[in-house]
Amino acid sequence: MPEIQSDDQQAVSVDKALKYYDLLKRPLVVMDSGLFIDELNGFPGVYTKYALDTIGINRIIQLLGGARAYTQRTITYFDGNKLQIFTLKLHGALLKEPRGNNGRNYDKYFLPNGKNKTLAEMTDEEKVELTAEVWRELAAWLSVLKLNHE
Fold this sequence. Notes:
By secondary structure, this protein is an alpha+beta fold. The protein has a single domain, classed as Maf protein (Alpha-Beta Complex). The protein has 4 helices and 5 strands, in the order αββααβββα. It has helices at residues 9-24, 48-54, 57-64, 124-149, and strands at residues 28-37, 44-45, 68-78, 83-94, 110-112. Strands 2-1-3-4-5 form a 5-stranded antiparallel beta sheet. Strand 1 and strand 2 form a beta hairpin. The model has no long low-confidence stretch (mean pLDDT 93).
């Protein structure tokens, strides 16, 4: 399904949730993610897939290896009435050399703050732990929503 062209990741995530809800007619959760490079004022951000497909991660690293960056995931729940947005940011740096094999694209270059492994060097369990807080927030919110409907 085509995404809207917007610099606002929340707008992209919400649009995706609304479109898929129209298609599926059932409650759903969608996620949009991107790489935001500080030296480029957050670019590629919501255009990460396009930048990777067009320029490629090797060229990005050649130009910006060592730069500060963050990955951001915007998770949107929509059930036809309630819309709720959750956001997770992982701050870190882009390394100049790839490390690890458990990932793709920028995972081999992205080193989260306070960690000694790139995303691609981490086990699936370690990656889950990095993102667990946002999923716990979503689960807690869904529990409250369910209680309010009983």
